[in-house]
């Protein structure tokens, strides 16, 4: 049985001007211990998908269709109280900015032990001991000292390690990491990603990694889904996607990476911008920006086509010129 299975998920935001559909027919699955990357520009719907899994869509947004099966249980049918027993317990989330995640007026120790007391019958002494052990697991030096410090007393990388440690406290089966390295410098980013990979492999924890950077996905994930304007446009094993991208949008994301450009030359970019929810183009949403656009692209939403092990929504699927492979060491597992 899959750890997580999202089937035909729709998310809608009600407004005075009419309903705005943020996710359209999104489907993917995750096996225990598997690492899945979700990639796309800002506004693609990546974070909305993550919040929908945890039932954290704020009003006027709501899940308007589909199923979210976690360990066989449909999360969309659970009461708020039942969701609280899963959120932060069986499924944990790591947000972009640790300073926004951590409460500045509470010590690290208080915030970590609160999680344990919320989900476990445990004494204060046992909670402290488990928190210290988890801080050690994420390679934080002097955990006893850090336990009694406030978030502002820690570096950005240290704060993110605390957030990861908190996510591991309850031995979750699934961790959702939403741009977990955005607020960090490049060297710390690499350390955090290596840490996430190590912890998932050691503990057989499923990971959903959300990012705009395909190079990060290629290093950590086994499978990937590429999203555009609230829809999955390409999905499959990461090795196939980065070496044989079929959708023009995926090809554009790969071509826009700095390592795909000759040093000293102008970076490549995808022309145009992501459409707003109130102005999604007819047909294929990517058609105004696509260099392979055909008349059918402007009138008909493409269905999914299987090419090898990938699934792609493009009228030119199979005939489009493949973009340059990603010039990195890839995760082949």
UniProtKB/TrEMBL annotation:
Q: What is this protein called?
A: Methionine ABC transporter ATP-binding protein
UniProt lists the family membership as follows:
Belongs to the ABC transporter superfamily.
Please give one Gene Ontology molecular function term for this protein.
Answer: ATP binding
- UniProt KW Lyase keyword: no
The protein's organism comes out as SAR324 cluster bacterium
- From the UniProt record, give one GO term of the biological process aspect: peptide transport
**Is this entry keyworded Membrane?**
yes
User: Taking every annotated instance into account, which residue ranges of this chain make up the domain ABC transporter?
Assistant: 6-254
Question: What would be one Gene Ontology cellular-component term for the protein?
Answer: plasma membrane
Q: Tell me where in or outside the cell this protein is found.
A: Cell membrane
Bilayer topology annotation: Peripheral membrane protein
For this UniProt record, give its keywords in alphabetical order, as a comma-separated list.
ATP-binding, Cell membrane, Membrane, Nucleotide-binding, Transport
